[in-house]
Amino acid sequence: MLWSYAIKYECDRCQRHYELLQPLNTCPDCGGLLEIEYDMPAMKRDLSPSLFAGRERSLWRWHEFYPISEPGCVVTLGEGGTPLIKSVHAAKELGLSELYFKNDTLMPTGSFKDRGFSLAVSFAKQLGLTRGLTYSSGNAGSSFAAYASRAGIDATVLVEYLANPLKKALIAFYGAHTATLYFKSMDEITLMLEKAVKELGLYQFVNFINPVRHEAMKSYAYEIAEELGWCAPDVMVHPVGTGGGIWGAWKGYRELYELGWIKAKPRMVAVQPEATAPIPKAFQEGKPRADRHGDPTKTIAQSIAADSQIQGGERVLKAVYDSGGFAAAVSDEEIIEAMRLLGKDGICAEPASAAGLAAVRQAVREGTIRKDDRVVCVITGSGLKQAYLIQERIPESNLQVEASFEDLQRLLTSLWG
Ligand SMILES: *Cc1c(COP(=O)(O)O)cnc(C)c1O
Ligand SMILES: [Zn+2]
User: Fold this and answer.
1) Is the pTM here over 0.90, yes or no?
2) CA-based, 20 to 30 A from 193: which of 273, 306, 342, 412?
3) Distance from the first to the final alpha carbon of the chain
4) What pLDDT, on a 0 to 100 scale, did the predictor assign at position 201?
5) Atom of ligand 1 nearest to the CA of 217
6) What residues does the Tryptophan synthase beta chain-like PALP domain cover (predicted)?
7) What is the pLDDT of residues 71-110, one digit of tens each?
8) CATH class of 81-417
């Protein structure tokens, strides 16, 4: 039994292999994206679902599936292991018999990014790195800052100019250097970072350019399959920015399937805002790569407002096509409606996270999700980080009472009859 069964990096594009214990971002040879490979035959031989049952509920419950070989390098704040909440109200309103929310609003810094940064920062610590950089629409920056601070790694975060002021302040609060990042298209950011990897040897924590972050998102598959009695749901719904979340989860399900722990894989659904929807557009046209599309300033779903995808979004589209899933675009009004519906089910989600539920509603109407499908929406981030939106959009009650019994009685009669 090993603590980790990771064995090497492999390039998506040229299939060249690299030794794992070195700080690589993209392929040194061709610039392609790197994927971490595992010794699946050994995992099949050594591991079984029952092995995990008694362990703590956290991301690290599944350490054999990550590239960390030194337990002492783990940097953790108790991320992962979040509840899978069965919907009461949204399910009824949409007419679904089984709708679940994977509630990652409960993560240490309020978003699912904590999974990825717990793992990526642990990996960086194992390599002895002392500095790192990422860009962020808000949540990734907080997460990186929090974990890097704990690990003694000097973190720099380029914060998109569109990020709301609270999110930007939180990144500095958790201890990172911040600079506001201005750009016309996300393409420019990717180009700048790819060049910095090549010319400066800069180690980065941007999804996919960093080959470790999305490995942590495999935990969605492990956690959800375990909770459903080692069975995958029929449909997994992910809001997509870079696609690290959906790609990681898909990789996790493929591993479980290969190990023989689940009998079927879910259909993967990628959701983006109508105003800027490169993935749904490419899907509609049946293309393997996404072109630039839309305007990220025109949506409230800041965390998934990306007009272009890293390396054409090939991984995201592959997850969608290979799984028999689909991509959907939703409007801001549909997102607000979905936020309110989630609120009734006890979850305060940020707009990007509610986009998934908005897409499910569309898909049920169109028949691409059936009423008896078992559906899981990943609720990626807390609405409290965009609280002003809730204040603006939820009408304030104009009822008033003086602190007197008579006033209270009058109020209750008016409310309850
Ligand atoms: C980053 C983020 C996303 C998008 O995740 P990707 O892995 O980049 O696709 C979705 N929702 C929230 C709340 C986020 O912070
Ligand atoms: Zn390569």
Assistant:
1) yes
2) 273
3) 66
4) 86
5) 7
6) 75-381
7) 999 999 999 999 999 999 999 999 999 999 999 999 999 9
8) alpha beta
